[in-house]
Amino acid sequence: MGHWLAHRRTVQPEGVLTRFDPRFWSVNFPRPMMASVVTTAQDALRVDFVFYRAGDLAGLIWDSADTHDHVLLRYATERDYRRTTLRFRWRSGGLVALDAINGPTLTIEGRDANGVARAWYVRQWNYAVGDPEDAVVTIDFASVAGGYTHPAQADPVWAGDIDRMFISLVAPGYAEGSDAPIGPVEGWAELSDMRCTGSGSVLAIGETIVPEHRLRMATGYDDHYNLTPTRLLRNMLHLGYRGTINHYVGMSHYFRLEEQDGGWYASLAGGALNTPCRSWHLDFARRAKALGFGLIWSLSYELFDAHCWGDWKQRAHDGSPALTGWEPPSTLLSPAHHGAMGYLRSVAQAFAAIAAEAGQPMRFQVGEPWWWVQPAGNRPCLYDDAARAALGGDPAVITDITQPMDAARRALLDAAGALLAASTAALCDAVRAVAPETETLLLAYLPTVLDAKAPEAKRANLPIGWAKPAFDILQLEDYDWAATGNSGASVRGVALAEARLGYPANEQHYLAGFVLNPEDAHQWPAIDAAGDVARGRGVAEVFVWALPQVLRDGYVHFDEQEDDVQAFDDVAFPLALGAECEVTPELSTAIATSASGHEQRNANWAEARTRYDVGPGMRSEEDIVALLAFFRARMGAARGFRLRDPFDWRSGSGEPRHDDQILGAGDGERRRFALVKYYGESARRITRPVAGSVRVGVNGVVTGAFTLDPGGHVTFDQPPPVGATVSAGFAFDVPVRFAEDRLSVSRATFLAGEAPSVPLIELREP
Q: Boundaries of each Non-contractile tail sheath TIM barrel domain copy (predicted)?
């Protein structure tokens, strides 16, 4: 696979966009209220709201600078609106009306003609014709003014340098800054017949179309709840993604809430999902289907902590709750709590109903279900009241899961694992009760459930109750390892998960990712490579996690040509070569001779390339038959293969030792080192070491804590310390190809003792 991190649009194609296109509006609001925006036609959008407090206010936003889309697909930044007129039909319900105090107001943020930052507040009723809840609004930005009444309070807008504008929307009874409960109160607004005219009404927009590839997309509602589904799907489609979208429904925006003692808590009153969430997901599912995308609906045991009932939370032995590192934090629901699990089952069924309404076959993923381990102190959260009761009433105390376990504590972890597996089975059964043909998937995060510092944790967090056929598909992710290039840990983690749960590679998915922070964009090559490794071992699907980071960092994926991928067959030349084989190292040296006879020499190549003639090694007609078959299978010179050089095939003079060749020095961060063999000061890259022959040392001490990656790279489980000498010994083959596309062999000349010529040439590999 190949990839590119795009930082700006240069020669890529562009189209045109009418300003204020409904697809590119967004929403914003404070917790705990909720809102979403969807497009209802090419010239229309709808916003749904749920207000809980008197001070809740939502904004429907148009940004002058597009920071949400992929850099190759963004619309151009243009802050001058003076030659633009916007006209639309406004309809609303459940909101303060256009003609009332605190009615829909267009807030314009930017700078005045003197460059001083400021905002203007444009009362839409001043530019409306019609009723307070059904009117046509026309705003000419060359003459628009803020202020409540005109002309007495008119505040002319200078629209030549605008950053963004938003329509503020509130519920009846609005009181700025008030936390007094008023809800839930639902409202909606529609903008239709949207028209933007004037010479400033058209913007350039990126129209890059990446060829369709095999990588799939993973995304999440918590990251893009504020954007239209149309906008997100446009990005996926243009970036070459097809097939299935793995969609995480999130942990902080789907729920309904009820008030108790000044707090707001997840509730099933009125249904499992709030109206904005349901509206958004139905639109997303329908549009995905229309574009040929299938959906995997992912639901986790994670819930926004501030809205989670206290007795639903997993807790450590000291009563402290399971809290993630997000800010603000989320918590983990107890698999033992009937109320928490019943709530989760209702949520899953609600999303299954949306899938059915959209005509999408239901594919349901249980996402990263586990017993949380608190990072500070490694305390497992097995001790909420419901879990204590389910685990015998007075379970053994585990204060640090990384410490050695006695039989009682191992038994406790096994029982916790069985409890977790039973809860995931009940969750899947609930979905199948409303969607009988549901395909079920389990997502396991290997660095946590298979933490080498806590070898017994897998009893609870990768329970044998998940073994095949508990789920249809096992999904694995390991981004702590993949993003840092720790391929050795990935290989061992996958092998352990396969051995423990029994899902073959073709019944697995792999989620490659993810780059948490923009400054870590250098991790993308390792992530892309990890996806390539997963595909190489035969998994059914590979997903990139996730869309927000893809858009933020400009990640572009493309499949390389099949011929490029398969240009080397990792097979050995079938015949043993004797001393008759001809070996010819060659170099390229440019020599300039002056009139005085002095020479100036320049080496064009950094290392020698070797030519071979293996014909003299042919000993029988059987050898000739094998050679001809091998030549045909390689399609002549088209495909490379391995050759054992009879004179140079080891790192030293004897059996490979860990200190034969110096690979480099540790810096405390670098994990990956290329195998090399030195000939004096000249280094030769070894890209085809013999499996099982590699011996590695750090500061002269043999180590097995490494993985041998394709291309002759050693990847350590942990970076060698600063200044440490990294060395290795190995046997190796030479990558070669046939030098010609024809091979001439005569039985008569061969029987007469004349050897055929079979020239080979060494391949340069990165």
A: 211-555
Q: CATH 2.60.120 in the chain, residues? A: 3-206
Instruction: Return the closest-CA partner of residue 52 out of 27, 35, 34, 33.
Output: 33
Return the bridge partners of 510, or none. Answer: 476, 542
Task: Please state, in angstroms and rounded to a whole number, the distance separating the CA atoms of residues 141 and 127.
Answer: 11
- In angstroms, the CA 321 to CA 323 distance is 6
CB atoms within 10 A of CB 684: 18
- In this structure, the number of other CB atoms found within 10 A of the CB of residue 16 comes to 12
Residues 279-302, mean pLDDT to the nearest whole number: 98
453, with CB counted inside 10 A (0-12, 13-18, 19+), is: exposed
- What is the CATH code for 3-206? 2.60.120
- Rounded alpha-carbon distances, angstroms, from residue 146 to 123, 153, 156, 173: 7, 8, 6, 23
* pLDDT computed for residue 616 by the predictor: 79
Angle between helices 275-290 and 229-238 (to 10 degrees): 30
Residue type, 685: R
CA distance 517 to 473: 30
Beta carbons of 509 and 218 less than 8 angstroms apart: no
Helix axes 338-358, 275-290, angle to 10 degrees: 40
Give the whole-angstrom CA distance, residue 456 versus residue 581. Answer: 56
**DSSP letter, residue 333:** B
State the sign of the Cα–Cα–Cα–Cα dihedral 146, 107, 231, 48.
negative
Which pair of tokens denotes residue 129?
């014709």
Helices and strands (DSSP H and E) totals, the chain: 15, 48
CA dist list (Å): 274 to 179, 183, 282, 325, 703: 20, 12, 12, 26, 55
Residue intervals of the chain classified under CATH 3.20.20.80 are: 216-557
Report whether pLDDT(566) > 90: no
pLDDT of residue 5 exceeding 50, the answer is yes
pLDDT tens digits, 699-746: 999 999 998 988 899 999 889 999 999 999 999 999 999 999 998 877
pLDDT, mean of residues 608-636: 86
Q: How far apart are CA 315 and CA 333, in angstroms?
A: 10
d(CA 75, CA 65): 8
Apex 324 CA angle, 322 and 327, nearest 5: 130
The topology (CATH level 3) of 216-557 is TIM Barrel (3.20.20)
- Give the residue from 311, 347, 309 showing the smallest Cα distance to 427: 347
Write a three-state SS string for 438-507: CEEEEEEEHHHHCCCCCCCCHHHHCCHHHCCCCCCEEEEECHHHHCCCCHHHHHHHHHHHHHHHCCCHHH
Report the pLDDT averaged over residues 241-259: 98
Give pLDDT, residue 579: 57
Tokens encoding 383: 């001790």
